[in-house]
Design goal:
The complex is a heterodimer of chains A (315) and B (587). By secondary structure, chain A is mostly helical. Chain A has helices spanning 8-17, 23-32, 35-52, 54-61, 98-134, 136-151, 154-165, 169-195, 199-206, 211-219, 224-247, 259-267, 277-304, 306-312. Chain B is built from 21 helices and 25 strands. Classes of the chains: A mainly alpha (315), B alpha+beta (587).
Chain lengths: 315, 587
């Protein structure tokens, strides 16, 4: 059997069945062919639903996120109780339901992760584009600023800032943004440098397009792929940043739950020795969410840029 | 009441018995760890360093074990598992525990025969002038002893001596010249073995103060270097069974036998081990693993974590033990100096409402339950002369009474509750305790805003900064307090925290003062018998709590652990840990 049409008539018939597909659809199709991407998308969706349903979970269990169950959730010695029918994921050192706290903590993690990544991307895109497009002194100044930010030790700076300003959600986001935008800015700058001498840019310029117009109408659309991929990959990094800050007591102020706080509670007083669920539950959730975002980021990169796939995977 | 009388009677009985048998009975020799053996090196694990290696300056509880080994005090305590016996004064360098003269102002002590300095040029007897020199060193212009204040206000002429000393240049030469050229009027040394202390007012707890290493004698060599300088530490002359062989700050302290020490002259120390090696920079969990594996023996400033304790108790490990230490940890100060909430906390009803609001039993549970902590209701913790179980603001089981608290708040004009700022230390179980207090105040309609403060800044820069109190940076704050010595130590709880004489004190954060309590305290210090003193100190406690400046919440037991090869582990009251000079190693 041959797939080639045998006659011109058959070819014409066949051609009416071929439809031009948009690049978005092509990407989606490629993405859906990758089982890892599908699994990670499902995982992320489930975690988002879990986070949104936190109040429902609290209502269903009857346990508030900061409510302490000193009789049923703790032994008389103050040791947390393990998973049972009342507390599905056990309790923490103050007799609070780990399941409910996990759900409320997911809100914090996702909020911080997504918000910080978007803000950081916007800053990164703006600075990267300006640096790459302007060149000269502006480029030098902006590039050296990126180097400077990248060379500041993250934790040291975070600790200093938090001790002066006092920990809060907005400060956590600000710190994460400050340390996250540089990577994307560098990539964008490199891309812009390569793009700005391409023919279509020359053409636009010769047609009298303004610099702003070239930047937004000609160059930016060509940067969509790295932006999407980088922003997706920035989310898990931001989530881990937030967990790190909270773990060190520099992030979310107790009693508000966050996954980092929950892990810190387990490490505190070596409680993990007697209460494994205090590590495994938030740690597993953190692992699942960051792994899902990372796999999705990889899948997106492959789907958006098929050339890279053949080079990377099948060469 | 009945309980205290019984206890005091027991203390007296035991002390009489001990005095009679002090020379023949070895403390700890009867414990069931087999026969005491001599030899071996005791390995101690520490996280941090000693606070000072200078007896006059030491005030850090774990360091008292180092001092026990290298510096003998005038009076001391026997290491014992028995809480009452542990705080009975025993003569150390002196022949017997002194009793006051008829007017309560003079105490005379006589040094033992055979007590010596391990001086570089060979053993030399400790004489009366060394004792005077030790106390004179307390207030030097370079760095003054943390406990100097107690002596300064008490020994006749010492305040003048210290005022003059403060004007001396903080250098070796002038300091030595001043100490050798001046004397404190209230310390007389009629001969080489007799010292007479004259006080400005009666102080029934003065003998207890002589058990502090701050009052240890100092050899003439101590004046050849600035107090606690590296040169001082190198040239340290020991009077105890051990001397410093090697010391690297924050890394290692090695003690070896002091050849000048005469066991015959020392009823309190058996000195079974040949050497003591303290390694610093070890973390809690790692230290516990080493102890359990037998590669180290004792802990210095570390304690088993709550999870460790849970496991040790589950395994019925007899090497784990707890002891009372007289402290109240935690209690909550209420800021009466700020104008927050319209000065709400200056109103007695509001402060009383907080007394009723807090669920003390929940805090005890957070601290590890009834085996590791207990509820307190006054300024004194169990183990101090003057502690009695009583509560002006009693609630059932210490669980608090939110309804009563709400009532009192409404009476005071706050029917809708209050919002209070509470700083907390970001270390150990402190965040948990803060959240427990927050949850219990929530029940009474009081919202608590928590602010974390780095643990090293909490006392040093936050609480003791008076601007933070007056500007309302905090409304309520959890702190702990341990008495500076054991037994008759009520003064060291009351005076630094609850007396304001015009000059601000570091730990009386809001300048609390009560005339009624001050009068009772003066009577207690002049009391003739321990019973009478205990009773009066209890009344001081009640007088302070009537004003409700603090919410007393809980006391914590000190938990200790040791390796399997340690025998005769009995705690020494001052260090709240096994006595280094009375344990032995079985292999």
């Amino acid at each position: 059997m041959s797939l080639m049409p045998k006659t011109p008539a058959a070819a014409a018939r066949a051609s009416t069945e071929v439809q031009a597909r948009g690049s978005g659809r092509l990407t989606l199709t490629r993405l859906l062919r990758d089982p890892a991407s599908i699994a990670s998308m499902i995982a992320i969706l489930l975690i988002i639903v879990f986070a949104l349903c936190a109040p429902l979970i609290a209502a269903w269990t009857g346990h508030g996120p900061t409510e302490q169950f000193r009789e049923t959730g703790l032994t008389p010695e103050g040791i947390p109780v393990g998973p049972n029918s009342e507390f599905l994921f056990g309790t923490d050192q103050l007799g609070r339901d780990v399941l409910v706290r996990l759900a409320y903590g997911a809100q914090v993690s996702i909020l911080v992760g997504v918000l910080a990544s978007i803000v950081a991307s916007v800053i990164g895109i703006a600075i990267g584009t300006i640096a790459g497009f302007s060149g000269g002194v502006v480029d030098t100044v902006l590039s050296r600023t990126m180097d400077l930010v990248m060379s500041v030790p993250f934790l040291l700076c975070a600790i200093a800032l938090v001790s002066v300003l006092g920990p809060s959600l907005s400060l956590s986001i600000a710190v994460i943004v400050f340390f996250s935008w540089t990577g994307l800015a560098r990539v964008i700058r490199g891309q812009v440098l390569a793009l700005r001498h391409r023919e279509f840019v020359e053409a636009a310029r010769s047609l009298g397009a303004s610099r702003t117009s070239i930047m937004f109408r000609d160059i930016l659309p060509n940067l969509v792929v790295p932006i999407i991929v980088y922003t997706t990959l920035m989310i898990p990094a931001a989530i881990v940043f937030e967990a790190t800050l909270s773990f060190l007591g520099l992030g979310i102020v107790p009693p508000t739950p966050s996954w980092g706080n929950m892990l810190a509670d387990a490490a505190n007083g070596s409680l993990y020795l007697v209460a494994w669920w205090m590590v495994v539950v938030p740690g597993g959730a953190l692992l699942a969410l960051t792994l899902a975002f990372n796999l999705l980021g990889d899948g997106l990169r492959d789907a958006l840029d098929p050339a890279a796939v053949s080079k990377g995977k099948r060469a | 009441m009945a309980r205290t009388t019984l206890r005091a009677a027991a203390v007296l009985a035991v002390s009489t018995a001990l005095m009679l048998t002090a020379c023949t009975t070895a403390p700890g020799a009867e414990s069931g760890d087999g026969e005491p053996q001599t030899g071996g090196t005791l390995k101690v694990l520490a996280n941090g360093d000693v606070d000072h290696l200078d007896p006059q300056l030491v005030s850090y509880v774990p360091t008292y074990n180092v001092m026990r080994s290298v510096s003998r005090s005038l009076l001391s305590y026997a290491a014992s598992d028995d809480a009452a016996e542990r705080i009975v004064l025993q003569p150390d360098l002196v022949e017997e525990v002194p009793t006051p003269s008829a007017d309560g102002l003079t105490y005379t002590v006589t040094l033992r025969d055979g007590v010596t300095w391990g001086a570089p040029d060979g053993a030399r007897p400790i004489v009366a002038s060394d004792v005077a020199r030790g106390i004179e060193r307390l207030c030097n212009p370079h760095i003054s002893g943390a406990l100097a204040g107690y002596f300064q206000g008490l020994i006749a002429g010492m305040a003048e001596f210290c005022t003059g000393f403060a004007a001396v240049a903080p250098e070796v030469g002038p300091i030595k010249e001043y100490i050798e050229g001046n004397e404190i009027a209230g310390i007389q040394t009629p001969d080489d073995r007799t010292i007479e202390f004259t006080l400005v007012e009666p102080a029934s707890d003065f003998p207890f103060m002589l058990s502090l290493d701050a009052a240890d004698p100092a050899p003439i060599e101590a004046l050849d270097a600035l107090p606690d300088s590296p040169e001082y530490r190198r040239g340290f002359v020991s009077s105890g069974p051990y001397q410093v062989a090697e010391y690297t700050p924050d890394a290692k302290l090695v003690l070896e036998r002091n050849p000048a020490w005469d066991p015959e002259s020392d009823p309190l120390r058996k000195a079974y081990v040949d050497g003591i090696e303290m390694t610093m920079g070890v973390e809690g969990d790692a230290a516990m693993q080493q102890l359990q594996a037998g590669s180290a023996d004792l802990l210095f400033d570390l304690s088993p974590s709550p999870a460790n304790i849970q496991q040790l108790k589950a395994a019925n490990d007899e090497k784990f033990s707890t002891m009372e230490n007289g402290g109240v940890d935690q209690f909550m100060w209420m800021n009466t100096a700020s104008a927050n909430n319209g000065g709400a906390l200056t109103k007695l009803e509001v402060r009383q409402a907080l007394q009723y609001a807090i669920d003390k039993s929940a805090v005890v549970q957070t601290m590890g339950g009834a085996d590791l902590a207990g509820v307190t209701n006054g300024i004194f913790g169990p183990g101090i002369l003057g502690y009695q179980e009583s509560d002006q603001y009693a609630t059932e089981g210490g669980k608090g009474d939110p309804e009563k608290a709400k009532e009192l708040l409404a009476e005071a004009g706050y029917p809708d509750g209050l919002t209070l700022k509470m700083p907390y230390r970001n270390v150990g179980t402190q965040p948990d305790i803060a959240q427990t207090v927050q949850a219990s105040l929530e029940r009474a309609g009081i919202t608590v805003e928590l602010t974390p403060v780095p643990p090293t800044d909490y006392y040093a820069n936050f609480m003791t900064n008076r601007d933070n109190a007056s500007s309302g940076a905090w409304d309520i704050a959890l702190v702990g307090w341990s008495p500076d010595w054991q037994g008759g130590a009520a003064r060291s709880v009351f005076q630094p925290q609850f007396v304001f004489d015009g000059t601000p004190q570091s730990y009386n954060y809001v300048d609390f003062d009560s005339d009624a309590a001050n009068e009772l305290a003066a009577e207690a210090l002049a009391a003739e018998t321990p019973d009478e003193a205990a009773d009066l100190w209890h009344q001081v406690d009640e007088a302070v709590m009537a004003d409700a400046p603090i919410v007393s919440i809980a006391y914590r037991l000190k938990s200790n652990y040791h390796s399997a090869r340690v025998g005769g582990f009995e705690p020494y009251a001052q260090s709240q840990n096994g006595d280094w000079t009375n344990v032995w190693l079985t292999k």
